[in-house]
Write a structure and sequence with these properties.
Blueprint lengths: L1 E4 L44 E3 L3 H18 L48 E3 L3 E5 L3 E6 L7 E7 L3 E8 L2 E10 L4 E10 L7 E9 L1 E8 L2 E8 L23 E6 L4 E5 L6 E4 L7 E8 L8 E5 L6 E3 L3 E6 L11 E9 L4 E10 L8 E4 L2 E8 L11 E10 L2 E11 L4 E8 L2 E7 L2 E8 L7 E9 L1 E7 L4 E11 L4 E12 L7 E8 L16 E3 L4 E10 L10 E13 L3 E9 L19 E5 L2 E5 L3 E6 L8 E4 L2
Parallel strand pairs: 1-33, 15-17
Antiparallel strand pairs: 2-15, 3-4, 4-5, 5-6, 7-8, 8-9, 9-10, 10-13, 11-12, 12-16, 13-14, 16-17, 18-19, 19-20, 20-21, 22-23, 23-24, 24-25, 26-27, 27-28, 28-29, 30-31, 31-32, 32-33, 34-35, 35-36, 36-37, 38-39, 39-40, 40-41
Amino acid sequence: MRASRGSYGSYGSSNLSGWLWKALLPAVVVSVVSSSCMEWPPGESGVAELRKFASAAGFKQYLADQVTAERSRNWWNIGFEAADGSLPQPSPPQVPDTSAPADGGFSTTNIQEVGVDESDVVKNDGTYLYILGSDQVRIVRAVPADDMQLVSTVELPSQTAELYLRNDKLIALGSGHDWETHTDITTITIVDVADRSAPDLQATIEAQGSLITSRLISSRLHLVMSMWPTLPLGERGLPVLVSNTNALLPDITVTLGDGKSEIRNLVGWDDLYRPVDPDGYHVTAVVTLNVDAPDEPRQSVGVMANAGTVYVSTEAMYLTDTDYNHMGEIRETTDIYKFDLEENGAVPAGAGSVPGRVLNRFSLGEHQGHLRIATTIGQVSRSGENDAINNVYVLGAEKGELVIVGKVEGIAPGERIYAARFLGDRGFLVTFKKVDPLFTLDLSDPASPRVVGELKVPGYSDYIHPLGDNHLLTIGKDAVDMGDFAWYQGVQISVFDVTEFADPQLVDAEVVGDRGTESEALHNPHAFTFFAPVDMLAVPMTIAGEAGQEPSDFGVPIFQGLCLFRVTTEEGVEPVVKIATEFVENLPHWGYWRGYDWVRGIFIGDHVYAVTSSAVYASPLGDLGATPQRLTLE
């Protein structure tokens, strides 16, 4: 085992973009409640059951009651004035590398579950790159690499943030705002790219509401959207029960390539469900579209709740609700709503609740009909009052309810979860305060999940990636122990051996740059590309170097672009090359490293491509020291 620092030299620095709070590595401050004496918030029963509205009048009255209750709790009255509105050892996970197709020809978007595609800013089919700009998609012929060409540009009707590619169809998801109706608009543009030089618009779909996330399973695009069906206000600011229920609900407009258009409610009142414990006037809707036939009827279902984290398997979708309550406090419980994903769309299948808060979607995982979920209760602070505990619950569906069938609680007291991953009947947690404990969990018996192994190493991991059957590849930060807290340092890439599940081992850890080094891959797995056929990892980085002697000292920015590493289970992590996508002289002081272009690493054949919205760089894998080929897109 070796742990090296700065094999790239003292390179360092980059885009902090919201991650500066990790400087002292505290958790969010929350009220402290132990899992053994969980008390539900006042007015809540602790039951996460969903109930359907019996009538349009019942829906309107519920909405009015929630508006009135919300106004009484919030003096600022935001959003109410618009009238429209191992022992035994668990078996190794049979999870292929989700970023590498079976033929090994090219890499694809790093996804959580096989068969559930996720959107990103760039897609590729092994010959062409589809690259997102602010309101357009550029189609680039990437092969051969020494003759890259921009073959066409697809103009989009709105600012676009996400792309899918299904066979010869490009699906772009965008967002905007209608200032007349004070409504957020989500736009789905479907383009036939069979002829890459002449893309053909097939359909434009505009839906009122904000896009939370989406998934593409076969031809079914599942959109999770957020909206506020507000009532107009009358005397003394009280809500008015309007007679037209449809006017309260968001619309969806489908316009085909021939100009034919259709408008209808995005979700009807009879497709809305409310929790037993009222949760405001917010609606989270799951809308399903057939991208191969956009004119087909759409199926929608909604929950009167402000759902946040979304996890999707090939069989089901889970929405969780652990947001701030209306008094500005963080809840210490997570409500979970399950939807079965049937041929035509999502169907409510159960609801449940667990103590604690989830970190992100990797805190959930479904296996053989059971949902595993990792949560944290309490807080971690520099003062030493660290009351956080971590738990893993296993839930099963029984008669429309999600019930806890197994649990392991009290993991790593005084720390919080920084990363989680569930793979088959195995689970992995990384918690952190001063060092990084990696926990291995045996989940082979849903009724009796167990922590079976633990390894403490410096730093922490933000993301856990499967590396074959018995190894993990992680990315996070190195850290210096300061007693009650730790200063994070450069980006750390690690390989762990979990063959002996009760005794995980660190194979290697590579630290890149000084304090201030950042990577989008720390918080966005789509920026993490491991391509198994060539044992290569590509991640974007802004690297900081030349830091002072104190662990609290930040470095200065000296590189931005794509970093490549060779990763094997035997040798660990070896830095290979950096492909710069920004000139060093253009990188300002660390405090202002924001707003730079995204970078993705793409593998096609015998080349690696560093892709941004403004340029494509191609380097041969056989001669990575050569000057990259460059195609400018602007």
